[in-house]
Amino acid sequence: MKKTGKIVLWVIAIFAAIQLIPIDRANPPVDPEKDFIQVMNTPPKISGLLKRACYDCHSFETEYPRYAYVAPVSWSVKHHINEGREHANFSIWENYNQDLKKNMLEKAAQNIDSRKMPIPGYIVYHPEANLSEAERQLLINYFKELLESETY
Ligand code: HEC
Question: What is the pLDDT of residues 63-91, one digit of tens each?
Answer without folding.
Answer: 999 999 999 999 999 999 999 999 999 99
